[in-house]
Design goal:
single chain, 171 residues, 4-stranded antiparallel β-sheet, 11 strands, globular
Length: 171
């Protein structure tokens, strides 16, 4: 029996490409147009199909939500399956502050909550590049990021994204 595989990628949907940006010379679109798409495979990775947009410009959002920081330029990301079976995804926002946001799916990646900013216990925005998550046996999530230095936060409650601890290392 084959188990469903899920993966995420980020980039720009053709419909979000700025008008007139496509030319003979390769170029990158503005990172504010990035979205995170989820793909699934039911045949062990031989073929993949689009499942949903988890975050970014093409994620289902209201006009008020679209103005939020988490929608513009959702890029580097990582997700894990929690003990309750839901998915928890953290992503970087393509801005000068490298803000980190999160979204959840309780439907195996078929739909996702609106992305929200991750904040420390003091209310400061979490930031960094190349986020990575590790679910520990005690149901605490470890989140690591970089630039500058290395950061690690612990999230004690993924349902509310409660950040319980913080460590920073400068190299």
């Amino acid at each position: 029996s084959s188990q469903r595989l899920l993966t995420s990628i980020y980039g720009v949907y053709e419909k979000d490409w700025p008008v007139g940006a496509v030319s003979a010379a390769p170029q990158y679109p503005p990172s504010a147009n990035y979205s995170i798409a989820i793909f699934q495979s039911d045949d062990g990775g031989k073929s993949w199909e689009y499942t949903a947009t988890a975050a970014g410009r093409s994620a289902p959002a209201s006009a008020a939500h679209f103005a939020g920081i988490c929608v513009k330029g959702a890029s580097e990301n990582h997700f894990v399956r929690l003990h309750d079976g839901s998915l928890f995804l953290v992503h970087r926002v393509s801005n000068d502050a490298y803000n980190l946001c999160y979204t959840r799916s309780t439907e195996d990646g078929q739909s996702w909550t609106y992305s929200k900013p991750l904040q420390s216990v003091t209310g400061t925005a979490l930031w960094g590049v190349a986020p990575r998550l590790l679910l520990m046996p005690n149901n605490v999530l470890a989140l690591t990021t970089g630039r500058p230095g290395l950061m690690m936060w612990t999230i004690s409650d993924a349902s509310s994204a409660t950040v319980a601890g913080e460590s920073r290392w400068q190299g």
